[in-house]
Amino acid sequence: MRLSADDLRALARVIERIDDGKAPPRVGGPVGLFFRQYARFRREVAHVLARAGVATAADGHIQGADLGSIEMTPLSSVYTAIPNDLWGPVAHVPMVCEELVHVIDLTLWLNARAANEVDRLLSVDQVGAVRLAGSYRWHAPHRVTPGEASPEPAQTEVRWHDARCLKATADDLASPPHPLEYTIDFRLGPPGVKTFRSFVARYVPERTRVDVLPGRGARTLPIALELPRGSLRELRGGGLVMVLGFREPWDGDWTVVAADAVDKTTALAHALTWADFRLEVEGSPPLADADTLELTAALRAAGVAVSSVGAALDRATLVRCGLPAALAVARWLRART
Description:
Elements: H1 5-19, H2 29-51, E1 62-63, E2 70-74, H3 84-87, E3 90-97, E4 102-109, H4 113-123, E5 130-132, E6 137-139, E7 143-145, E8 152-153, H5 170-173, E9 183-185, E10 192-204, E11 209-212, E12 221-224, H6 229-232, E13 240-248, E14 251-262, H7 264-282, H8 289-301, H9 309-315, H10 324-334
Parallel strand pairs: 4-7
Antiparallel strand pairs: 1-6, 2-3, 2-5, 3-4, 5-8, 6-7, 9-10, 10-11, 10-13, 11-12, 13-14
Helix pairs in contact: 1-2, 7-8, 7-9
């Protein structure tokens, strides 16, 4: 099922009303099912946050002053401003936010001062990432509005290749994402409600598929995937590719946003980052030598033998920066997927 831009604008308004505590509309089919699931779990988030010691406002949002500062990088490689005469006064930008441990829907009400300032930083000044502190608003886990914050350029830009919160492997990619992990997106591919993941796979041209590499498990996951022609020129049968892809709640297939050929060392670095992020969400200590050996052995069993574990550790993203409240929500989400 494909949504038009008009369909998605209407759907976004419904999601925003559910975020504000309204009941989902009585709609049939897969869209209605998504609304009902989304509303059900949305009501539970306040209880999860309360157990973490974070209070939510009447409309379900959390004040940024109660959380801490966040830095966000546009998921698309180039920020494209959406003209107001076409899209109206609201813009949606998918952003990687490691502090909130999700790809979030940055919702910009462009008539507001802070939202306009964010839009100017991204579209005019073309900064790589934006920092928000103070009175921004977080609708856990996936939507942020600038509120009355004072946006400024961020110190660090997080590329999708490196983002911890995007990492996935064959161990978890087969399971459907949680309904609250989907975000509104008009920019990357056709308009839709999407959850994004990055994964490393072996290209199998004769079968028009890729085999997603494992994390701790021993098996790859074959999935049908249409790779961009540019990345195919760099690949041969058996070559490794890192993919940024998305799926929608009513479609089990993955769609490629971007893909780059990678080597075996990067494949292990991806697995190491994925494993350490999972440990962070669980509240466990960082990767130990035993974890590294297990991940290396799993890739070797899948036919990817890495010559230098040290080089993979150097490439891995092992700095933890998730905020406690966001980690509590992510832990609850993972327990239900």
